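Course assignment 3, question 2. Fill in each field.
Student: A.L.
Task: Predict the tertiary structure for the chain below.
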Amino acid sequence: MSLSMHAVSVPVFQQMLTALGGVLAKAEAHAAERKIEPAALLQARLFPDMFPLARQVQVACDFASSVSARLAGAELPAYEGGDQTFADLQQRIAATLAFIGGLDAARFNGSDERELVLRPGTPKERRIGGQAYLVSYGLPQFFFHVTTAYDLLRHNGVEVGKKDFMGAY
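Answer field:
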């Protein structure tokens, strides 16, 4: 039995975004308990040229939404808000989960063979098959940003471990 494109994408995004929400909740509690200004964690970076925590979460959500939308042939939702607080980031995760959870699995049928155009009409335009897009681009990008968000918090003393990163599976 082969795996469907939906099975390899949406449930993975759901698991990891739900876990990321749990990690952020621990970070918010950590900041409150230690009287750390939340912005210190939200703007933390591993290195000056990297995105801060808040942006890592935003980009992870953006990849989950955009990859799912492209594979399902759906319109991508627009997200409002500056995502400056832990509550804002939790709301972004919830909106992303609602969007991808609302996509009918049947819409993903045939997406492994479908050609996708990334950055159309720009010098960086690229055409790629759906399976390669998911496996070689979308999932690695998503995991990079989720992992970096986790690492930023762990580096800043938030007591999280692999079980927190993985979430329920």
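Instructor remarks: The mean pLDDT is 95. Residues 62 and 78 are 10 Å apart (CA to CA).
Grade: pending
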